[in-house]
Amino acid sequence: AGDAAAGEAKIAVCAACHGTDGMATAPIYPNLAGQSATYLESSLKAYRAGERGGGMSAMMTPQAQSLSDEDIADIAAYYSSLE
Amino acid sequence: AGDAAAGEAKIAVCAACHGTDGMATAPIYPNLAGQSATYLESSLKAYRAGERGGGMSAMMTPQAQSLSDEDIADIAAYYSSLE
Lengths: 83, 83
Prior knowledge:
Two copies of one chain form a homodimer. With 83 residues, chain A is mainly α. Chain A has helices at 4-8, 15-18, 37-48, 57-65, 69-81.
């Protein structure tokens, strides 16, 4: 399982769209506050693997590709812990 | 924009995983309660188009392919309205 405190230090880029509080900054982006960490990890790994197209994948794929498994677990833990 | 009341009548299949209240029945599934309707529509259309792979897409793609644009808008409005 990820470390939410470590995740908080890794979300500077994520927060531009998903908020530091997990509430999206525009309706096309999903809210992440309180989302299942397991699901968030699965989603980020699908983007990273280039499996998840459509939607905002042109933005998400390269972002996810900059993340390690540990980064993904930490970020998922952080957003899941909110609200 | 979709009709949340109409959407409520269309979520019998969705609810098996995402709940009638938008809270997922297992951690691998995302919670949908209060999620942005715009995002939910975008996601369902990406699944329907076969663009969104990975994760649970083997389940979601055929489900989304059974939905019209109106169904998608109504279901998105319903889950977005919750909580």
